Amino acid sequence: MIDIPETESMAQGNSDKKLFLEFLKGIFLENPTFVLLLGLCPTLAVSSSLSNGLGMGIAATFVLLGSNIIISILRKFIPDRIRIPCFIVVIATFVIITELVMKAYSPTLNRALGIYVPLIVVNCIVLGRAEAYASKQPVLKSFMDGLGMGIGFTLALLLISGIREILGFGKIFNYPVIKGFQPAIMLGLPSGALLVIGLLLGLFNWIKNRR
Amino acid sequence: MLVVSSSPHIHKKESTSKIMWTVVASLIPAGAVGVFIFGLRAFWVIVLGVVSAIITEGIIQALTQPLRAGAGLTKRKVTILDGSAILTGLLLAYSLPPHIPFWLPIIGSFFAIAIGKQVFGGLGQNIFNPALVGRVFLMASWPKYMITFTPPLRAGAGFIKPLSFDAITSATPLSLIKEGKALENISYLDLFLGNRGGCIGEVCILALLIGAMFLFIKGYISWHIPITYIITVGLFTYVFGAKGLFTPHLRAGAGFSGDWLFHILSGGLILGAFFMATDYVTSPLTRKGQFIFALGCGLITAIIRLWGGYPEGVSYAILMMNAATPIIDRYTRNRIYGTGKF
């Protein structure tokens, strides 16, 4: 579990602008995939196509939002010593809701994501935000944090799966885009996921260091 | 005048660049024979592979220059002509089938230099043999082209058949064996001279051996890795080959009857053993380590050939042992003079 130190301004500020910053940090400065390097297992596994990535991102965002709100509400009642099991119970509830809804309304997506939907329970991003943020902060800020982290995760997934789907299968959302393009099959395989994530991480670190 | 400088005090006149260019020169016979066997198209594949490797190296070195300056590192000379990029492009092109589309060697060389070498920090820093990284990337990405081989232009016994320009796809001897088909009309001499389907640079064993002999005489490669590698493959395929020990339906007379000479002469074993496994950067430093390295290469190659999914395993074997090289080096260090038992 990574404890992210909260700065003074974050803890005190309550204005709209501060809230918006809470939201933004999940997308850029503390992007869960590219900066915190959390939740890489689902990122590697389901980023083979844009629809899978989007589905996973939305599911994780929903769970993040729900768990952050509930844990933030209950933060004064949860005993410190058994906080992790309590977090897991809350998270698992939301994951089961997500899974049942997905099974009912989008069985194809559910089949494509497979075991990785139930595995959101132990997703580092969800648990990490609960431990490091929601269990210490008021409800509204936790909500914005969950939303920002969820959207940041979704965007990262879309970026990775977009690159992999275009180059690895020659498609965007399952529609062929370029005629006569010979996709590099390797990028659609797990090794391609590792390669793309590594190169993107290098690129973002490069951009960061240039500043 | 007394010059005081730090060690090392004994210098060799050899430089990295000179060694690289010599290896490139020693590969020329194999390429020339490849072009003779498969036609001019093979020549353009080689040229594209080499040029693409040089351009990629130059672009990446130019791009990373400001980055190095930003990190406080000294400025590095752009070293596109030190021979190493050319060698990578050459080895990659040699391990491609002759009739692939022209964009394939370009992408392969780009990947080999960019991902296989420069990402790790350039010459001397790479874990894996860059040329093989490029080849395996192409193999995993566009297998359709990478396993489509064309027969030699002058196919037939002893190169006497007139030129036939129909590009008929054919299989390599190894893939025929893998599919359980019998080999017809191919003698050991054909395999040795390169009268068979295969990759551009791997077919003519004679030319490869001439190049390797040149490197031996110059002292740039030692016999440890290539000979151990080849003997391991030969021995293993002899013991477990065709009617091998574990072939279920041939209990009687099983074992010790594999066609070892065929396995040594076919596929990319000679090219891999002499020119790829001996890469200074990615092979162990000590003699003992080199034995272990070559033994591993041989075992993996033979296992893939006999029981694996692919007909040929040289590139995967060398890459796997490249990954094991740091740990081999760690456990086979020479005893430092004057210290206790190691």
Task: Explain what this protein looks like in three dimensions.
The complex is a heterodimer of chains A (211) and B (342). Chain A has 211 residues and is mainly α. Chain A has one domain (16-210). Chain A has ten helices and two strands. Chain A has helices at residues 8-12, 16-27, 40-46, 50-73, 83-105, 107-113, 124-134, 139-169, 185-188, 190-210, and strands at 171-172, 175-176. Chain A has a two-stranded antiparallel sheet with strand order 1-2. Chain B has helices spanning 16-38, 40-70, 84-94, 103-114, 130-141, 143-146, 173-178, 188-193, 205-218, 224-240, 260-265, 269-276, 287-307, 314-331. In chain B, 45% of the residues are buried. The chains are: A mainly alpha (211), B mainly alpha (342).
Q: Which word captures the global form of chain B? A: globular
Please estimate the helix content of chain B: 55-70%
Amino-to-carboxy terminus distance of chain A: 29 Å
Can you count the beta strands of chain A? 2
Strand content of chain A: under 5%
Total DSSP E strands of chain B: 0
Number of helical segments of chain B? 14
The succession of helices and strands of chain B, N to C, reads HHHHHHHHHHHHHH
Question: Which two chains form the greatest contact, residue counts included?
Answer: A-B, 13 and 10 residues
User: How many domain units of chain A?
Assistant: 1
Radius of gyration of chain A: 18 Å
As an assembly, this protein is heterodimer
The main sheet of chain A comes to: 2 strands, antiparallel
pLDDT < 50 stretches of chain B: 156-168
Question: What key attributes describe this structure?
Answer:
heterodimer, A: 211 residues, mainly alpha, 2 strands, 2% strand, globular, B: 342 residues
